[in-house]
Amino acid sequence: MHSDVESLLALQTEDQAISEMEARLAALEPRLREMDLAHAAAVEALDRARHAVEAEEGGHRELQTRIAQHKALHERNIAQLDSVRRMKEATAAMSQVEQARRILAEEEGALQGISRRLTELRGTVETQERELAELDATHGTERATIDEARAVVDGQLAERRATRVGSAARVERILLQKYDRIRSVRRDGAIFPLRGPSCGHCDTSVPMQRRNVMAAKGSIEVCETCGVLLYAGT
Ligand SMILES: [Zn+2]
Fold first, then answer.
1. Which structural domain range is residue 208 located in?
2. CATH code for position 29
3. Cβ neighbours of residue 72 under 8 Å, at least 6 residues apart?
């Protein structure tokens, strides 16, 4: 086999190995992104739950303050009631006391409602904190495995690329430029043997005269249909 063909085939073997390793690295990416998204979603859910707790706690504090104020007012009303002598004033004071008692009862009920919601919301926060920790622990293990796999492929890839430099140096410069140009658009290969009378890539038949030259001189031709490099196989 002609040395140009041999060195190009060796180069193509390197490139195919490199492509395959790059594909293996790229295949790891979706899972990493998926884990990032799952983590972000869990963090966001936890944030929302914590904010909900804070909002309820704020409402709880406000209502407690209001109840304390109303209680004090109520006690003053009751004290006043004792000092009222006239009937008309007594009726007014009684109704004031009654109204304040009703408001207080409503507020106490609302406070209980908030307390119940707080208990639920704090439970949600705890659950989500636990889930996030579990998720991160699981992901941590998986990421370590992926990192290991990636380190192995990275190492092999570095070796392969170094070998590729040597293989490329053995190809004649103009031919190498042609090869690289074809390879940049055709990931499935840039140089193919003739298959019978036809291009080994697209199956278009190659004129006999050109085939004869290729066989005699070991020259490399470009397929006029698909643009790959062609050589006469053994
Ligand atoms: Zn072709």
1. 172-234
2. 1.10.287.1490
3. none
Q: In sequence order, which ranges of the chain are alpha helices (DSSP H)? A: 3-83, 87-169, 173-185, 208-217
Q: If you average pLDDT over residues 22-27, what whole number do you get? A: 96
Calculate how far, in angstroms, residue 20's C-alpha sits from the geometric centre of ligand 1: 23
* Polymer length of the chain: 234
Q: What is the pLDDT of residues 110-119, one digit of tens each?
A: 999 999 999 9
Question: Whole-angstrom Cα distance, residue 99 to residue 193?
Answer: 100
- Cα of 31 vs centre of ligand 1, distance in Å, is 38
Q: Tell me how far the alpha carbon of residue 222 lies from the centroid of ligand 1, in angstroms.
A: 8
Structure tokens at 183: 């390879």
- Which amino acid is residue 148, in one-letter code? E
Report the distance separating Cα 78 and Cα 74, nearest Å.
6
Residue type, 41: A
- Asked whether residue 42 carries a pLDDT value surpassing 90, the answer given is yes
Rounded distance from Cα 160 to ligand 1 centre (Å): 28
Tokens encoding 131: 């889930």
Q: State how far the Cα of 229 lies from the Cα of 223, in Å rounded to an integer.
A: 6
Cβ-proximal residues to 202 (8 Å cutoff; 6+ apart), any chain: 223, 225, 226, 228
Same structural domain, 152 and 180: no
pTM value is 0.72
- Asked if residue 181 and residue 90 are part of one domain, the reply reads no
